[in-house]
């Protein structure tokens, strides 16, 4: 098996993982899209909040300003400077947010 | 293990129900044991009386493969008209299908509710000041149409897309840019996370976390409107831990994109889910990207339309209608982030445009509004997306949008561009911060050049023949603009203002070949009279070179390549390509593109520049110890990443200009 094939297989596995995280594993594709789209906003906002809370007070404003100003370089720099192992940190926050979404989503489905 | 297909008794549906129900129960147990809850509707569908459809499923063994309601619907839906069990059963199946649709709607609603609740929780849990900021982001997010979020779809792409729209004044980046661009970025995070060697062996969960983090970071960071032709993307990937990966290993998989013109419903919607990214620079060129997809949609409707057909046609138009030295100057941008060509629309005398297949609102407004067409890409999109967001339903109707979704235009719709012009120049009702949308965009994007005059020169195309640039864009899409823009930009930058004045001259509205009927303007004309530049001999040579390169890009390159895959890293190219192909899965230059490259290679080496050529495109020896040009691992761009088509074509173009090599 070459690399290309192995990557494709991994993608499928990860896809299922992501759908599983938001509670859409066994849904029709259209529904999976919808669930993921719905989850994306809260996930990003959760990450944003987590990053903001992790930043020193005097940096928060710079960070929000950077977001408002579309200043991607500053956003990167702030994250890199003030959040150790930012990938892991954000990854965990994404998971937490996705889990929260799933819980709420399942409650809504039962309602 | 399912037993032998049961013998069905068409006279006794109750008996058959038992057979199928047993099978369904076993199947359902599988779901439940896996912790998967399915709706009662889903189970109920499997308990329908057996008819020919159900029988077919059972006999084919297909039942084992049905795991979703959609798959079930696939079996049911096409059989409606051939039911053998009579109208009652057909009606029953119709209800089943409706149930599937209802279920999906219920899921959407539940997901939407969950999303709202979670957003509220997030704001509530945040300190007051942070909460206010998040609230503003969430409000921005709500402006994004649900359908767009869903249609764009696809794993992290969706996360990236919609997430980005929440983070910052997304008016600065149009929805379409964000959606398409972030689709790439989000997926880039995903695939890079997967591909990076240090994560090999990780669990899918670990990889997903990495990918999600990458997507989220990329989403946060995408707000910069100064992304430079993919360089920023690569830098971002590097800094977020996803860089330095041979991106050429992935093919761009066209996924379900937002159709610009409503398509007939597919009996079995099965969108592919993942964008497998090229890190290409098209984030800069959303309209062209959009047009690219619009083109695909058009081709879908107008089969057997094909790229090669369009290529030939474009060339034909180019030659006959637009002798290159008479092509209007404003077709050629000073830089790819500065104004570039937009094609005038065929309007009626009231400034109304009739929608055609492949159109979308953004492209129509871009081409139909003179002030907008004079802007840079970002500025244009800013104006248009601001306008779309600010228009009330009544105003949408007044400009001719009859659908509740501005993304959906119907061929034959009439878009009133006079009305649109009024709206975008109105500083009060539709302005931003007391400025008209035009002024606002100009402030945001200093490079934007408001066309003070520029009435839209109407270029009637009574026979529906696409214009040069329209055809070319369909062919080349973003790539056309990217490469041509980079080329021209570099050329002009090097030659500073003298070249700008001598080659391009002032930005003026399109001057096309005389139309069959007198042009009709959407706004009162007040033309800018271009000043006739006085050219020196050197400037004349530069101009000639400019046009030569222009033809080279527009005619040869796009004719052969079709504008696809600019962001992909090129692996191999030379006469040994066939052999090289046998030793790698990643060779990505083939066919017409290879011929095109051969032509460049031949010309450059004839002129004694072989070494320079090898330096640009890279040098590689395959497993047979044969020389291959363009080795993915051998060529690095300024940021240290492997070169892409973008890099290589740009450098080659610059090289050709620099050395005055005319193909």
Mean pLDDT of chain A, as a whole number? 72
| Strand composition percent of chain A | under 5%
Contiguous uncertain segments of 5+ residues of chain A = 1-11
Helix-strand pattern of chain B: HHHHHHHHHHHHHEHHHHEHHHHHHHEEH
Instruction: Compute the number of helices of chain B.
Output: 25
Tally of individual domains of chain B: 4
Pick out the low-confidence regions of chain B. 1-24, 33-39, 42-67, 74-86, 144-202, 217-343, 450-533, 553-588
Quaternary form = heterodimer
Rg of chain B (CA only): 28 Å
Query: How does the overall form of chain A come out from the CA principal axes?
Result: elongated
For this entry, give a set of tags.
heterodimer, A: 111 residues, mainly alpha, elongated, disordered N terminus, B: mainly alpha, two-stranded antiparallel sheet, 25 helices, 4 strands, globular
Description:
- The complex is a heterodimer of chains A (111) and B (663).
- Chain A has 111 residues and is an all-alpha fold.
- Chain A has one domain (3-110).
- Chain A is 84% helix and 0% strand.
- In chain A, α2 packs across α5 (86-110) and α3 packs antiparallel against α4.
- The longest helix of chain A is centred in the middle third of the chain and has 26 residues, at 29-54.
- The model of chain A is unreliable at 1-11 (pLDDT under 50).
- Chain B has 663 residues and is mostly helical.
- Chain B folds into four domains: 13-103, no CATH class; 137-279, no CATH class; 284-535, no CATH class; 569-658, no CATH class.
- In chain B, the strands form two sheets. A two-stranded antiparallel sheet of chain B has the order 1-2.
- In chain B, α5 packs antiparallel against α6 (128-142), α8 (155-166) packs parallel to α10 (204-221) and α16 (377-390) crosses α19 (437-444).
- Chain B is globular.
- Chains A and B meet through α1, α2, α3, α4 and α5 of A and α5, α6, α7, α8 and α9 of B.
SSE blueprint and pairings:
The complex is a heterodimer of chains A (111) and B (663).
Chain A: H1 3-21, H2 29-54, H3 57-68, H4 72-82, H5 86-110
Helix pairs in contact in A: 2-5, 3-4
Chain B: H1 13-33, H2 40-45, H3 52-60, H4 69-76, H5 87-125, H6 128-142, H7 146-152, H8 155-166, H9 175-195, H10 204-221, H11 231-239, H12 286-301, H13 307-321, E1 352-354, H14 361-368, H15 370-373, H16 377-390, H17 393-399, E2 414-416, H18 417-424, H19 437-444, H20 468-504, H21 537-561, H22 577-582, H23 591-606, H24 610-617, E3 619-621, E4 627-629, H25 645-658
Antiparallel strand pairs in B: 1-2, 3-4
Helix pairs in contact in B: 4-5, 5-6, 6-8, 8-9, 8-10, 9-10, 9-12, 12-20, 13-20, 13-21, 16-19, 20-21, 20-25, 21-23
């Amino acid at each position: 098996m070459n690399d290309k094939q192995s990557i494709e297989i991994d993608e499928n596995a990860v896809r299922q993982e992501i759908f599983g995280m938001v509670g859409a594993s066994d849904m029709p594709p259209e529904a999976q899209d919808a669930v993921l789209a719905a989850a994306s906003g809260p996930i990003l906002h959760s990450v944003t909040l987590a990053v903001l809370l992790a930043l020193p007070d005097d940096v928060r404003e710079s960070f929000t300003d950077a977001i408002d100003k579309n200043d991607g370089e500053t956003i990167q720099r702030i994250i890199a400077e003030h959040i150790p192992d930012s990938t892991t940190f954000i990854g965990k926050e994404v998971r937490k947010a996705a889990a929260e979404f799933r819980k709420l989503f399942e409650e809504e489905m039962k309602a | 293990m399912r037993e032998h297909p049961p013998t069905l008794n068409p006279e006794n549906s109750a008996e058959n129900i038992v057979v199928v129900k047993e099978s369904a129960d076993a199947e359902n147990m599988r779901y439940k044991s896996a912790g998967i809850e399915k709706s009662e509707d889903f189970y109920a569908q499997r308990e329908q009386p057996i008819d020919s459809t159900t029988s077919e499923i059972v006999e084919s063994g297909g039942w084992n493969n049905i795991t979703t309601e959609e798959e079930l619907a696939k079996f049911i839906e096409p059989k409606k008209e051939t039911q053998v069990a009579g109208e009652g059963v057909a009606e029953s199946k119709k209800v089943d299908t409706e149930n599937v649709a209802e279920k999906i709607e219920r899921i959407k609603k539940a997901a939407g509710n969950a999303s709202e609740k979670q957003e509220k929780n997030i704001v509530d849990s945040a300190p007051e000041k942070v909460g206010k900021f998040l609230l503003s982001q969430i409000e921005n997010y709500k402006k994004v149409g649900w359908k767009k979020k869903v249609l764009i779809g696809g794993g992290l792409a969706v996360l990236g897309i919609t997430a980005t729209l929440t983070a910052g004044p997304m008016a600065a980046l149009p929805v379409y840019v964000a959606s398409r661009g972030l689709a790439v970025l989000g997926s880039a995070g995903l695939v890079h996370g997967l591909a990076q060697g240090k994560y090999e062996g990780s669990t899918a969960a670990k990889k997903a976390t990495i990918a999600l983090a990458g997507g989220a970071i990329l989403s946060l960071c995408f707000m910069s409107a100064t992304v430079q032709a993919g360089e920023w993307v690569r830098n971002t990937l590097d800094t977020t831990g996803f860089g330095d990966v041979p991106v050429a290993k992935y093919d761009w998989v066209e996924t379900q994109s937002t159709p610009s013109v409503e398509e007939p419903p597919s009996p079995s919607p099965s969108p592919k889910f993942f964008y497998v990214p090229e890190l290409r620079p098209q984030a800069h060129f959303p309209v062209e990207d959009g047009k690219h997809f619009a083109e695909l949609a058009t081709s879908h409707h107008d089969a057997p339309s094909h790229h090669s057909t369009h290529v030939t046609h474009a060339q034909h138009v180019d030659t006959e209608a637009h002798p290159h030295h008479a092509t209007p100057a404003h077709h050629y941008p000073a830089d790819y982030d500065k104004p570039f060509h937009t094609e005038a629309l065929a309007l009626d005398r009231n400034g109304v445009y009739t929608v055609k297949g492949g159109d979308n609102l953004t492209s129509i407004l871009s081409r139909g509004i003179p002030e907008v067409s004079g802007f840079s890409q970002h500025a244009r999109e800013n104006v248009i997306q601001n306008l779309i967001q600010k228009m009330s339903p009544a105003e949408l109707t007044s400009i001719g949008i009859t659908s509740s979704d501005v993304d959906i235009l119907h061929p034959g719709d009439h878009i009133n561009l006079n009305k649109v012009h009024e709206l975008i120049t109105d500083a009060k009702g539709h302005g931003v911060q007391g400025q008209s949308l035009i002024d606002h965009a100009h402030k945001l994007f200093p490079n934007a050049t408001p066309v003070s005059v520029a009435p839209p020169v109407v270029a009637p195309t009574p026979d529906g023949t696409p214009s040069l640039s329209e055809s070319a864009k369909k062919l080349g899409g973003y790539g056309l603009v990217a490469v041509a823009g980079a080329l021209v930009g570099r050329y002009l930058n090097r030659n500073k203002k003298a070249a700008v004045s001598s080659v391009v001259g002032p930005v003026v509205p399109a001057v096309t070949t005389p139309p069959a009927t007198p042009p009709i303007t959407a706004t009162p004309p007040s033309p800018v009279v271009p000043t006739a530049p006085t050219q020196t001999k050197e400037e004349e040579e530069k101009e000639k070179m400019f046009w030569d390169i222009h033809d080279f890009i527009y005619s040869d390159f796009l004719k052969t390549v079709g504008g696809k895959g600019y962001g992909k890293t090129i692996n191999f190219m030379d006469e040994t390509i066939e052999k090289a192909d046998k030793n790698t899965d990643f060779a990505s230059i083939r066919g017409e593109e290879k011929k095109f490259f051969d032509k460049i290679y031949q010309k450059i080496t004839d002129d004694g520049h072989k070494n320079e050529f090898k330096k640009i495109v890279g040098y590689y020896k395959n497993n047979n110890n044969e020389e291959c040009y363009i080795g993915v691992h051998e060529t690095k761009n300024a940021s240290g990443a492997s070169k892409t088509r973008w890099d290589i074509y740009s450098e080659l173009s610059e090289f050709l200009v620099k050395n005055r090599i005319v193909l």
